[in-house]
Structures are given as structure tokens and as C-alpha cells.
Protein 1
Amino acid sequence: MSSPNCGRREAVSDPGTLRGEAAALDAADALRAKRAEFVLDDDTVYLDGNSLGALPRAVPARLADVVGREWGRLRIRSWSESGWWTAPERVGDRVGRLVGAGPGRIVVGDSTSVNVFKAVVAAVRMGEGAGAGGRARDEILVDAGTFPTDGYIAASAARLTGCRIRAVPVGDLAAAAGPRTAVALVNHVDYRTGRLHDLPALTAAVHATGARIVWDLCHSAGALPVGLDAHGVDLAVGCTYKYLNGGPGAPAFLYVRRDLQPRFDSPLPGWNSHADPFGMAPDHTPAGGPQCGRVGTPDILSLLALDAALDVWEDVDLTAVRAKSLALTDFFLRCAEAYVPAGRVVSVTPVAHAERGSQVALKAAPAEAAAGTMAELVRRGVVGDHRPPDLLRFGFTPLYTTFGEVERAARTLGEVLGDVLT
Amino acid sequence: MSSPNCGRREAVSDPGTLRGEAAALDAADALRAKRAEFVLDDDTVYLDGNSLGALPRAVPARLADVVGREWGRLRIRSWSESGWWTAPERVGDRVGRLVGAGPGRIVVGDSTSVNVFKAVVAAVRMGEGAGAGGRARDEILVDAGTFPTDGYIAASAARLTGCRIRAVPVGDLAAAAGPRTAVALVNHVDYRTGRLHDLPALTAAVHATGARIVWDLCHSAGALPVGLDAHGVDLAVGCTYKYLNGGPGAPAFLYVRRDLQPRFDSPLPGWNSHADPFGMAPDHTPAGGPQCGRVGTPDILSLLALDAALDVWEDVDLTAVRAKSLALTDFFLRCAEAYVPAGRVVSVTPVAHAERGSQVALKAAPAEAAAGTMAELVRRGVVGDHRPPDLLRFGFTPLYTTFGEVERAARTLGEVLGDVLT
């Protein structure tokens, strides 16, 4: 491999050495017991938990009970007796602990896209009439490297609220924000490169201009400490099916800072966000708490599957998760450096720990080799994913990925690239 | 009971007669075999399927397979190999058969509220610049008796698109629609009274003014034939957890008439509604088919639970469902007339078949007795629900409700009202 920090092919590529090191790292891993709480098979190295997390063992039995007893036997009574009605906030509080949000800040429900829409429109409305010279803040800034849906939804929010939208590289966002800026929408971790952005600094910089900031935590929630409350973040969204292992398409979450909840003017004021949802009043009076982010009837089966999936986090410290995440990605980069023929891939993931999420993306050369390389990797039991045109993406989930798997993945990648073109 | 068609107390209230009649009706019921496909207990008469449908027996095993094998073993591969990615349209087609929509008109996903938002905003955009004298159509009409969330969401759509909103009783809608009307949002069946509105006539009347119509089918889908394609309906939404038995908070559906799909300009253009969702392009190019109504990643567990729940419909003819539904509500009204002391309740559900959905709502006198009456009914094993201030609501699900249960429910209601105040 050619890496930005090390252009030369590393001399030592003896698998024995790195395998031994992997074994030692696994033996010393403070989180090693967590792997047993997931359904995994030793034939496959699953490095796609940044797309869909593995199944926690607690989920099937819990979901069977939700379906068979709560729905099947109690039926309508479960809305109160089984706590269905309050599940969006209850599960939200559990997610909150993992992203540094105190109780009562988060609701779970809807997709990330829908939550981006609520957050961006609500943020624009918080800034109305508050810009320079009394003019409305009418600009939405969006991370130029954003996952596409955030950009599409932000553009729709701009169109509907009479704002203009401007895509800006994250590095330029602090300078770009100004008195016309209503809100900046930023991805905490870039979904392609795995670059981690500086949430505290960027939040402070955007706040200094009087604007709001919405963070998309899809690729950081459950992978590293976030500190939403501590850094005064206004609004945040994120999905729960990546590092939180909530299941395919599990409901997303929406964070609204406590003091902003009474000012959260939702563009999707469904009956669930009404201050008195069962009053069936003809006009909408917004709920003042985290319920302000709800819309329609919560999707109970998926929500309670997520609830069960969150059990694995009960005894987990995010600091330990972050430490292992960095150790895994460091080790993968070293192994790839050792095993992969020079010139075939180059890492686009930052070397600096402060700028790295929990994935590594390797740019393939030639670009056309990327898809075939990933297909062959999967055939050989190493599951990452391919993001066109030329990225090979590997996600590392500290709760279940072992260093032994990391060594095997890099070694297999080296073998595939050696076989394919040599 | 006092009913609009019959002010006098019926002379015959011999339970033996009505029980015998119930037994004969059950014996002749063409749908009687369907009940065995649901989890029900004979101790409870469940007349709340218009709020949450009972659990179809096929669901638990299917969901266990989706969780254990598709998610647990195949993981990310299931997006293609298990057909997850195309499930919103595939399940949509199955719902389509039940509401008179051909393949490729419906997607399943999001909540009803979110789908109302998409439909109303998209309808307004279809009419832009098309009103009288070249002026924009800038008025949204909404059924004055609507389920509240539809009104809240329509008001939000109006605010965001620069329209005004006007609530009009359904009976006046045809006259109220005019050259400024962009869209009318109407409930097919009133959630309180159970009144069925005339979909073909109202659709034609609104179309005659050049406006669009959005039908909310929450209380009709699975209860009676709808005929969306046949009547040229523009857009429709509905939930799947009432008569379609999809489970608590199961994803809702959105119908977009075939010729309108290329013009469906969604206010929630997520990556799933992109013409090339995996191209990750920075700009949104809308999908031309039913995918135009998708937003974010589909909620697979709930969606496939619904898919399994729809199996019960495979051999069911909606005409038979409608016939039994009317027979059930007719019989309930007769039994209530016979058993309930005069003056204690009056039906607010229309007597005419053409104006009746699949529920009966009884207005209690005095109003304060309603909550206690329903609580006591539930304690005695008859589950309906109470809608404040004074409505006792009973839903009849033709696939599993028996005439014997109807007789028991009315008899128990009579006993409760007799016990409570006599």
C-alpha cells in the first residue's frame, strides 16, 4: 500500500509477526467479551458495521415477545401497559447516553432524512429576523462532502423556507458562516473518507456568527464520544443501524437542545408532537419537551428491536470504544502497509487520530479495479463495501471486531490484489 | 338504544333469538375460515381492529427469519439477496391490490403524517401557475372533521408553500373547491363517526375545478373496496396497522397516480427517491416511478412484518369483505337496539350502507358516562375504544370478527349500561 505518511513499501510483511501482534492485542482487549453478545460467524470478517451493524443476540427473543405477547395478546392495551407510547423518548434517552445527551433531549423515530428536514427547517425558523441589520438569516450552509440525502433535504428545506443553500467544504465552513447564515448542516464523520470533523470547534465558530448548527452523527454515534450537551450543539440527527446495531432501517434519532425545545417549530407537526395528543384538537399546540420532534405513530416493532439492541451498551464506556476503534484502524493501516503491493491502494482516511472516525477508506488504482476487488474480498470472507468510483471502505466496530480479523482482512486484501494483477 | 331510524325501544330483546341468528350468520359466513389465521382468544371480543389490527399467525415466524437469518446471517447482503431494497414497492403492490391500485402506484414507508405532507406539497406543486387567469392555485381545502394530524400537516404544507388553508365540512367540499384550489385533502371514512364519504363523486367534483385530491384511506383500506385507479384519484395515503393488521406503527403507504409520478416533486427528496440512489450525486434527480414517494432507508423489520401480515389477503375478495362488514355493523346496530336501555346511547354512524365504513360509534348520554362505560366493557372482555368526550367506538374487522361476538358485545353493553345507572 502507498499511504500519505509512508510512501515506501514496508520491508517487513511477515504474517507471523502481525498475527502474533493481533493475538496479543486481542488478549489485552478490554471489550473482548462484548463480541459474544452478537451473532457472528468466524468464517466471515464483517467490516461493514458502518453500513449495517451485526445482530445483537438479545434482539430475537425480545422482538418475539413484543410481537407474540404485546401485540398478539395485549393488542391495543400495549400502548399504555407495554410502554409503547413513551418508547420514542425512553429509547431516545438510551441513545442519548451514547452521544453525550442528558435525558429528555432525544426522540427516536422516522428516517435520518426526515429528521434532517425537521432539524434544518426548525433551525431556520429559530433564526428568523435575527440576522444582520434585522434582516432574516436566509442562508443554509451544507458540508460539500455530505452524504447526498442531507444535501437534497437541505435544498428542499431552503426552497420551502425561502433560503439559499451553499455547499462549502467543511474546512471552510467556519469562515463561510456569517450574519446571513441561518444554519450549517455538517456530517460528523465523512461517509467516504472516514474523516472526523471537529465538532466542538465548528459548533463554537458557527455559534459565534449567531447561526445554528445541525450535526449528522450517522457515522459517529456508537463509534466515539460525541458530547452534544457539553459542546452546546443545537440540533443533531443520526441513524441507529450502523454502530448502534439497531437493525436494517431502524428508526433514526433527533436531538434538540433542552432550551431550544420550546422554540422547535416543526415542519412536520403530527399528532404525536401535540402538547395534548389525545385531545384531538383542530389546531396544533407543540409539545414543549423532546416530543416536539415526533410526528406520527411510532413504529413499535423496529423501535423495540433497537431498544433490545441497545442492551449491549449498558456496561460500555465510550472512551474504551474510542481507544479500541483507533487501535483497530491503526492496526489495519499497518497491516495493509505490510501486505498490500505498493501502488495498488492509498488510504484517504486521515492519519491523525483527531481526524479519524471508525472506518478506513482505501482508494484503488486503477479505479476500475475497485468493484472487482471488493467482490473478490467478499467471496473470500472479508466483507467491506465499495463506494464508486474507486473507494474500498472498511468499517471497524469496536464491540465485535477483533484484531485477528483486522490482520486477516488486510492479508486477504493483499492476496486479492496480488492475485488479480500480478 | 335510541337510533336515528328508530326512536322507540324495540320490543323484542330476547337474547336467545339474537344468539340463534348470530350462529346462523356465522355458519353462513364466507370468510369464517380466515379467523383461524389470527391470534385471538375467545374470552375477548376485540372490536378495536380499527385502531390496531390483531396479529396474523404468519408474522412471528417470518419476522424471526428476517431477524435471525436475513439480518443475523446475511447481514448487508440482504439488501439485494433478500430483496430488502425493493420491498417498499413490492409490499406497496400488495397493498395496491386491496385499494384498487395497479402495480407500480404505491410505496410503503414512513408514517401517515409524513406521507400526507409529501402528498399535499406535491399536489400544490402540480397546480402551480395553473389556476384561474394564470394565477397560482394557492388554497388547500381540508375535511373539517379530519383526523387532527392531517389538518396539522396540511396547515404546515400551506405555510411552507405560501397557500392558505380552509377547513370545510366534507358535504360542502365540492361546492367549496374553485379555481384557486390547489388540492383537497379528505378522509375516506371519518375516524369518529364512521361515515364513509363518496370518493368517486368527490374526486370528480374536485377534478372539475382543476384541483387535485388527496384521500386518506386509514379507515377504509382493508375494510371496503376503494378503486383508486378506477376513479382517477390523484394521490392517497393510508396506514397499515388497522384493517391491514401490519402491527403497531407499521409503515404507511403513499399512492401516486401513474401519470403523475414524473411530476411528483417531493418536499422530502431523500436518497431513496433519487433516479440513481447509489450514484451518490450531489443533486437530486427524482425517480420517475413509485419510488418518487420514498425518502430514507426503509424500515425493514416493520415492513416485512407487514408483508407477512398481508398473506391473509391472498385469497380474499374485497367484495366479500364489504358485504360482511355491512352485515356485522347492521347486526350490531340491531342487537344494540334490542339490548341497550333507551336513551343511553345513540348511534352517530350513518344508517345508509353507502355512507357507512366498518365501525359503529355510539354517543353516550350523559357524556361523562362514556369513559367509565368503555372501561367496564373492557373489564368484561369487550374491547372497543373511547373518543372524548362522549363516543364509544366499535370497529368490525370482517376477517376475524364473528356475529356471535357482535351479539355478545351488544349484550354486554346493554348489561353495563343497565348496571351502571339502573
Protein 2
Amino acid sequence: MQTRSFTETLPRRVVVREVGLRDGLQSVATLVPTAAKLEWIRAAYEAGQREIEVGSFVPARLLPQLADTAEVLAFAQTLPGLRASVLVPNLKGAERALEAKAEMMLLPLSASHAHSLANLRKAPDDVVAEIGRIRAERDARGARTQIEVGISTAFGCTLQGRVEPEEVVRLVQAVLDTGVDAVSLADTVGYADPAMVSRLFERVLRVAGDKLVCGHFHDTRGLGLANVFAALQLGIARFDACTAGIGGCPHAPGASGNVATEDLTYMLHSMGIATGLDFEKLLALRARVAQWLAGEPTHGTIWKTGLPKTFAKEAAHA
Amino acid sequence: MQTRSFTETLPRRVVVREVGLRDGLQSVATLVPTAAKLEWIRAAYEAGQREIEVGSFVPARLLPQLADTAEVLAFAQTLPGLRASVLVPNLKGAERALEAKAEMMLLPLSASHAHSLANLRKAPDDVVAEIGRIRAERDARGARTQIEVGISTAFGCTLQGRVEPEEVVRLVQAVLDTGVDAVSLADTVGYADPAMVSRLFERVLRVAGDKLVCGHFHDTRGLGLANVFAALQLGIARFDACTAGIGGCPHAPGASGNVATEDLTYMLHSMGIATGLDFEKLLALRARVAQWLAGEPTHGTIWKTGLPKTFAKEAAHA
């Protein structure tokens, strides 16, 4: 019999970081107008979201969907207390983020060599070197922009196949040595299972401690929320999610989106974990996003089945 | 930091019990001919399944879909090593199961008073009394038929709402006192979350020990596999599942089926847990079941997205 509960290490409060505007939209063909993005951000903010990845500073010809990132970021910065982040693939993008005074830059680092070459045309160690240059540039400017490195394909890769946990740990140590503020682990292609999550997060926690701040799970094979639960047990208290579960990875054929914001929030509230989010407002936003993306695949479950009869009372405890 | 891993208590081997022919089909309108059911059972057997719930001894006018249970059971009994079970709602049904020399009877007992009245027209304690009479009848005949009681709506109910864990524990103790062989816990309507599962299974294990043999989770709100993971951590090593995730509960509007057999098997194999099942054969069976049920809703994820590139090698370890 158990001597310790499997639930006592669950955090009491979790941040659901909305990444639909970047990770979601970047692999969606339908162009979402800037006005709709601003409406999305305002509605997410009104639903209680305080961390939103609003876009990416990549060349507009590569990702026309995100070409308006500077404008979207500027709007997000008008909302008090909102921590807007942008994805940045290299020093050039970082310079734009620093000029825009973004509160946070997310730098992707593929643990898969093959994915790194496909995605950034650089080997992982060259990306680590670039991250070092970005950190130096940030400090030289005296900027307050935080740097989080997302270790992508941390659980395997559609191109390369297996990714060794030792390589993930080595890269985490390498980027921490460059002086970044935080790291996160991403199952970019939906290969993780909860046992893998438990084991890899435990190993990386030994190296990174509380600098491991976030889990990023794609729900490609239906294990997204099980994976979140496994990470929660290790005290991870921030998860990326996409409204309507949109998105995927352009270099990962068949990969569906991140866990759906509304499904993740339902699970957390059901477990009595506070998020600060208004569930009904998230559902209303989901409906609007699905309208903007009419014809594109969306995902998620709770919007179809509705909340349990027991839910309202239990969520109030959160 | 952790002093104990969250994966070390996972079982090395798990039984996936197929309940699609009963729990799945009982809420499906399309009548599946007996010949197709026999083909289903044979294919499941060839895929490695050794525990199959083949039907229910209820009056044919109530569930025409399961009117051929005696014939289906007789066929299942010709397959060496297959443990066929039947659902039995009362003493009359139990007498039929005993006459047919079923290896196992599953007796449902709703922890929700309202669900119990709707489903069996008896209060839970009256069902406990009937279970006692069934156990006595089994023993009087010197029959070898095992008796498992499935505590349904153990995590809440669409009719009644909240179900107190104390009531679940009380009913488990009551049926164990009648001398049944095993109990299982069922989230009949998809209200459970992994924290609820962890806590309730832990409490029931304290009362039932290794007589708590199975978890039965509906995936109504997308948490089915997360709930399985939580139960696995407590050493539970048998789960009910429906091929193609079919089914639901006639008294639970909107409830989708059990976790899909093929999705559950994928998660278990990915975690290195042996099931004895041939994944490709399960997928082929899923396709056939979906054909028989053309027009009916089916569920599940892995049949759409395919296995990870890393999967084959890791499954071989199982």
C-alpha cells in the first residue's frame, strides 16, 4: 500500500499560457486578420489569462500569418499585468523583441539534431551558441526581457525518431550555462507518454530546479492531459495550451495542436487547482476562434460534452 | 525534489478487458448480428485479448442488442484460455449465467442512489442484498462462476450530481461482506479527474486490497487515459475498454464510450507495460467494428494519427 499520496505534490495554482496565437496559428493556412488577433487577446485577458505568446519575430515571408507580431505585441503591452511573450529563432529576431521591449522571449532549441536542422538550419550546439549571443545582447542593452528556452522534440522526433534523455539534460545544462532565465520541455510531435514525462521532468528538475518552468504538450495521440498530470505531480505549475487545440508543427507531419486551453482548464479546475480563468469566457472565446478558422481542424472535448453537474461547486474551491 | 519516483509503482503487465460487446453495444442503436459478434470475439482473441465481456443477461425486450448473449457466450467458451464475462443485473440474470457456466459475472451497483433507481429500480442497499442472494445461489450450486461487483457512478452522476467517496467505500465494504470475489470502480459518466481517481482508489484499496481488480473509465470529457494513469500508479492492473471507444450509458445523456481499446493499449505499450496484445490486429479489428457500426459515433485517436516512429522498438521491451 502507498505511504505517500500521488496527489499531495500537485500545485495549488497553475498558469495556463495561451500559445494559440503563435504555435497554433503558425501552422494554420487561413490568415487571421490583426483585428481578430487583438480581439482574441482582449477576450483571453478578460477570461483571466495573464501570459500569452502573441507571435514570432521571424521573416514575414516565412510565416505571413505572424507578420503582424510587432503590432499585436504593442497592443498586448497596453493590457495591465499581461505578460506577453514572442518566439524568437535567432539574434536578429531577438533584436526586434528587445527593441519592442517584449517582457519575454521564447527561444526554441530542438533536442533532435534532425529537427534542429529542419527548423532552424543549425545544429543544437550552434543554437546554444546563438542563445548565448542573445543573452549577451539582452544584457548589453540593459533590457529586462526575460529569456526562456523551450527544449523542443524533447520526447522524440518525427524526423530523427528517438531523442536520448541524456541529450535533453545536456542541452538544458548548456543553455542554463549561457545564463538564460528559464527552460521548458516540449513534446512537439506528441510522442510522450506520462511515464516518459515523469522520468524526463524528474531528471531535468535535478539540473534546472525551479528554472524548469513550463510543460508544452501536443495532444496528437490523445495523451496530452495525461502528460500534464504527470508533470503536475512533479510540481510543474505552468503549461502551454491553444484555444480550440489548434496548430501543430510545420516539420512534424500529422501533429495536431497543443492541449486545448479549455480542456486543460477543465481538468485543473476539476482537481481544485486554481488558474484565475473564467471557464465560460474561455468557451465563448473558443467559439469565436473556431469561427475565424472555419474549415480548419479544431480539437478539444469539453466544449462538446459540457461540464459535469458536479463541476461548479468544486471549481469554487479553486 | 522527489524522494520517490512517480513511475516505480506502475505495474509491469496490465489486462485490457474488452467491454465493447456489452457496455459499448448496449447504447448503440444499430443492431450488430450475432455472426459479427462472433467474428469480433475471434479477432479480439487472435489479437491477444483473454478477458472479454460478451453480453448481458437482461430481458431481451429491454436490450434487443444483447438478446443473443447466451449464444455469444457459448461461442466464447470454445476459445481456450478466454475468460468471458457477462453482466447480470439481478438474481434471474445470475441464474442464466450460472446455467451457462459463465466464468465470470459482473454485477453493477450504482453508488448514486438516483442512478441505481433509474438503472435497476432498486436502492443501492437493495442491490447489495440481491448480490448476497446471487452469491448464495452461486455457492449453493457449487458453481465456479466468479462474481465481480462494478461500483458504477463512483465519481459522480448525471442525475444526482455528487457521489460521496464515503458512500463508495461503504458499498465496497458491504459487497465484500456478502462474499463476492472482486470489485471494480467505474466512472460511468465521465466525471472523474486523475486526482479524484488517485484519492478514491487509494481509499478503496485500504478496504478492498487486491480484491479491487479493475478501473472502468469513460472518456466523455477527454480525461479517460489520464485517469487510467492515476490508477496505474496505485498498482491497478486491469482496465475496461471498448474497441473504437463506442458506447455510453443509457441513463447518462451525452456520455461517450469507455476509453478506446487501441488508445489504451498504445499508452500502455509506450510506457513499456506488457498487455499481450498485437497492436496492428487491434487496429484492423477497430476498422471492422467501425464498418459494422457505420453511421454511429466512434471515438479514439491513435487510429487516425498512427504510431510514433519510436514506438515499435519500445513496445518490444514490453
Protein 3
Amino acid sequence: KGGKFGERWAEICEAYGVEVIPVDIEYGKAVKPDLLDYLLKKERDVKAVFVTQCETSTGVVDDIERIANVVKGHNVLLIVDAITGIGVHPLMMDDWGIDIAVAGSQKGCMLPPGLAFVCVAQSAWDAIEKSILPKYYWDFKKMRKGLGNKTTPFTPAISLITAAGKALDMIKEEGIENVWKRHARLAHATREGIKALGLELFAGEASSNVLTAVKSPEGIDINSAIKRLRDETGVTITGGQEELKGKIFRIGHMGYVNDFDIILAISAVEKCLYENGYKIELGKGVSKVQEVLVSCKK
Amino acid sequence: KGGKFGERWAEICEAYGVEVIPVDIEYGKAVKPDLLDYLLKKERDVKAVFVTQCETSTGVVDDIERIANVVKGHNVLLIVDAITGIGVHPLMMDDWGIDIAVAGSQKGCMLPPGLAFVCVAQSAWDAIEKSILPKYYWDFKKMRKGLGNKTTPFTPAISLITAAGKALDMIKEEGIENVWKRHARLAHATREGIKALGLELFAGEASSNVLTAVKSPEGIDINSAIKRLRDETGVTITGGQEELKGKIFRIGHMGYVNDFDIILAISAVEKCLYENGYKIELGKGVSKVQEVLVSCKK
């Protein structure tokens, strides 16, 4: 539970009467694999570990490879929320031994929202077969049967599935390793631009390549500043959610994004802070981004 | 339970442990409101009646107004699957006293599939507040709270919602009464065309304006005939599902459909049957459709 989406895993389980042992993580920090190992040794009845690869609410990326290594030592399933992580950070389902991964269409997959993807490893089917929790539309057995006949058990969002085929073609053409590198490079440039403005990264060392979360400067009403920026220029920067409201702002850089998008985003941050009375040296962020992008070749 | 979608209501209830008293209806026939009244008098513990307005699997339309009148006399909720009925047959939720209606984007609403709409009358909220069945994403209380803030509790299929706004503008411009009339007229022409070919309507008097279900002629393999037609001409006529496989074929005429679509559909039926050895007088169906469409003014 290191953010809104980690908490959502817990809420979903609890809604279905599944007992949850929360692993509380300070917002902005990653899961410590050692702590997870300790807890799994202590709690012998755990059936599954739910983690979030990229916690969009805090900008943190978890080290799924190390987490998977820890989980492998215990007789439990590993279920990963890769909704924003997919296509941005590597996720080697088979190599790392992930049992179930969930992804969405609207982030690294470059599509409008409306589709969820669930990848189920062979290792998870035993639990699925035995599952007695009530379900109808989300019955994986029905889905597997449908896929075997090249169809789906219920009418799907066909236009988005067609678009997904196209997006996957684009990713295949670029090469998934290059897609990961592109995101790493753009995220690095964003972080350097932010630091050059004297601002602090919320997720520090654990900052993901999905989005950059930044601590809001003292004495500025970040949410109304962001709203004004959006209304005046059409650039959307996002504030914090729930407990983090007013405390951070977030710059997304996943999916169909290039160098100029990062320049634009940092220039918008500069404008937004400057016009709302926060002292920055105008141009310092964009210069730094420019410098990083030119020196770090693609 | 007069078809696949009536059966689905029962399956969904049973998946969640809700006891179901099935009202078995012969396929191709409508629900008899008197029988429903009799059953509701006999079974005093019933909490809700689930019906399907248009049973897409059989082409039947149920008389929801009369059903609602019966249900009103008992202390139960009326929940209507209006997924294909909406925008084709009238459904006066408030006037008739329907508690919950469910619709989809992909039929009379003229959109690609991917959205479900649920209309909840004030009268249903008491049951929703008391409901203890497990749910997370389909929590109506969360949805109502979100809508109050002009948002949704989870990321929705935004591109389809935007398209839905456009489709509703089109329906508003045509006028819903005119939309109903257009469907009634096109369905009538389709039925007359089918009868002129010596074929029999599967749903007889209960035929809906959503689609026309036709009994497959003896001695013809309707499914492979339909498949060949689709591959050769791109025209899709649908076969029967499950128990009705091979026994009927179905012509859809809901949504963004006009006179020429009906001419085309009946000409395709003629071609398909003729080329597969079934004796018909070529042109007899299309002539009849042409005649009906010209004589029945819009």
C-alpha cells in the first residue's frame, strides 16, 4: 500500500471478502523486497502477493524482478498491476515468474481507455480452477474457452481491439527494447529539467519512467495553478490524488511521446510556477532538458 | 427464460448466489403478463423481476408496458435488459415504473460496442443501499457519487463516451418518436419481404423491430450458406445461437439503418438461399420490400 493503486488491490480483495495483510509503504518509496520476504516467512497462510509495478499516484516504480525473486521462494502467486508500467518498464513475465499481470490500453499501449488486458501464466490456472468467489463477466475460464475459438465470451469493445492491433504493430516496429529506452531517456530529461528548476522529485531514486511526480513548492496553490494552465494553454499537468492533493504535481511521459513533448511540458511547468509567484529562473528547466536530450543520443 | 439473454439474467444471479425462479417461455414467444402475475401471487418472497425487452437470440419483443403494469401490483423491483431494445422500441422508464434498465452502446445507439448504460430509478436506491453482494467496479453508489462531480469513479472508455454524445445528438435531431417509427417501418418491410419468399418468421406476432428471426428452410445448411455469403459479398446475416443453431437465421435492422439497407439485406437472403439450392422465385422478396417501402411513407 504505497499509493492509491496499491490500496485499490486491497479494496478489491476486501470487497470480495478476501483477507488482506497490507504492507504499508511510505508514499514516494518503493516496496522493500526484504520486508516482503520477512512477512511471507511470518505469515504462512498467504495465497497471493499483489503489487503495483508503477504507482501512478506517487510516480514510484517497484523492482518487480527482485520482488518476483522473493515471492518465488514461497508457495504464493504473484499478481502484478502493470497498467501503467507496461510498454514503459520491462516486465518479463515468464523469466521472472509472474503468475498474473494486468494491463490497460490507455497508457504505454497508446490507445484510448476502454480495454483491460490480463495475462495469466500456466502457474495461475490451478488457483483459477479452484476459485469459488462469485464472478460472471470476469470469468477467466470462459475467456480462455472463447480465445481458443478466436472469439470472446461477450461482445467486446471491437473498435479498441482493432486499434490495439495497430498499436502493437507500432511497438513491434520500434522494438520493445527501444520503446523502454525511449521512455527512460525522456523520463531522465524530465527529471533533470525539474531539478534544474530547484524542485524536488517526490519519488527520488524510485522515480518511474511513466511519469514524474514533483513536490509542490511551498506557498503555491498548485491545483488552481494547474487548472489555469490547462484552461489557458491546453497543457494538462496533474495534481496529487487524495492524501497527496496539493502536495505534488505529476507530468506524464508514457506512450506516444517524443523529445518536443518533454520540452513543452517543462516550459509549461516553468510558466505555471512563474505566473503563480514562485521564484524560478525562466528557461533554466527547458535549457537543461534540451542539453540532456541532445547529449543523450537515442 | 425465452432465449439466451433471458437465460443470462438467470446465470448472473446464480453466479452471485441469488435464488432464481425461472419463467420458461417457448423460444420465439413473448412473456405472458398473466403468467407473471400468477407466479408473483404464488411466490411471495420474490424481490425482483428480470426481463429482456428484445430477445436478440429469438427476435422476440416483450410488452414491457404490460409487464410493468403487472409488476406494479406486487412489491418487487422490475429490471429490464434494454440492450437491443433501446432506441428501437419505446421504453418509458418513469411512466411505466421501471426500476432499473440496462442498455448498451452498440445497437440502437449506433456506436461501437464498449459501453453499458444503467438507468436507476429513485425507487431502486433503497435496495442498492442495502445490497450486500460483493462488487467493486460495478458499485452504483460510487458511480452516483462520481456523476455528482461530473466524473466517473474509474477511468472510462473516453472515446466511446464522446461518440455517445454525438450519437445522442443525432437521435435528438431525428426525434426519438421518429427513430422508433423508422425502425418499425424497416422491420415491417423486412418481415413482408421474408414472407413473400415463402419463409416463416420465427417470432411470429412477437417479432421485434430490432431484428427479424427467420426459420431456416428445410434441407439447407444455413450456417455454411451464411458464411459463404459473408466471405463472398461482405454481407453478414447471423445464424442461431446454441439451441437455435442451424434452425434460424437473423437479419439485424437496428441503429443507423435506412431503406437501401433493407433492400440489400433481402437481396442477400435471396442470393444466399438460391445459390444453396433452396427454391425461391428470385426478386420476389426485394420487390415486396420495395413496394412496402414506397407505399408506407416515412
